[in-house]
Design goal:
Transposase_22, L1_C, Rec A Protein, domain 2, 9 strands, L1 transposable element RRM domain-containing protein, elongated, 4-stranded antiparallel β-sheet, alpha+beta
Length: 222
């Protein structure tokens, strides 16, 4: 009786042993896969940080790339009836800053036409500013002074503290710390204007764009 029972039990025991070995092998494989996945996630995060740093470096170089141009020139325009930009390269940064401050507080007219002054910035910088326009408009409405920094950042000084925002993903937390209402900010997909043509604005942090007084143009946000 015992021998007969043992004969029937032996295949079952061998089958269980085989299943145990297979399960162990699968668990080891899963552990290795999980470990490789964690290593890949770490590598991906490191690559994303490198990409972010490269993008900031590219934007910085883009903003500095026009320093070798002439001090003043007229930008070409496809439509002669539209106002033409005059790109001016200031030799000293502090003079350019003083000019921009004066332009915000003074109405300059030539032959009856108002002249506007704009920062000559990289298209990517202009895009980021446009993305944050609802936020800066709310700051202006509340008489909260803000400044733009470089590499790109928006700074607000309040109650002896400086709050800094580096990109649109930080906007919700930034607004909450300033007790601002919730607002929807939309990231733009590219640096193209609504008419589909790439932006032709310049790229030097020492440059200033003055509008040729041949027609009106709305003032830019400061």
């Amino acid at each position: 009786m015992t021998a007969k029972f043992t004969r029937h039990l032996t295949p079952i025991t061998e089958g269980l042993s085989d299943l145990t070995r297979r399960i162990t092998a699968i668990e080891e494989h899963l552990d290795q896969t999980s470990m490789r996945s964690r290593e890949n996630e770490t590598a991906i995060a490191a690559l994303q940080e490198q990409v972010r740093q490269l993008e900031e470096a590219q934007e910085d170089l883009n903003n500095r790339s026009r320093r070798s141009r002439d001090r003043a020139l007229r930008a070409p325009t496809p439509n002669a009836a539209q106002p033409r930009d005059i790109i001016i390269r200031m030799h000293y940064f502090h003079i350019k800053e003083a000019l921009m401050r004066a332009a915000r507080d003074t109405l300059l007219q030539i032959e009856g036409h108002q002249v506007f002054f704009y920062q000559d910035l990289a298209p990517s910088t202009l895009r980021k500013r446009r993305e944050l326009r609802p936020l800066t408009q709310e700051l202006t409405r509340r008489h909260i002074r803000y400044t733009w920094g470089h590499p790109f950042k928006l700074q607000v000084r309040q109650n002896n503290r400086i709050l800094t925002l580096h990109n649109i993903t930080e906007a919700a937390d930034f607004a909450e710390r300033l007790d601002l209402p919730t607002m929807v900010l939309t990231a733009e997909l590219n640096d193209r204007r609504p008419n589909g043509r790439p932006s032709t604005r310049g790229t030097s942090p020492h440059a200033t764009r003055a509008l040729d007084p041949s027609g009106p143009r709305p003032p830019a946000e400061h």
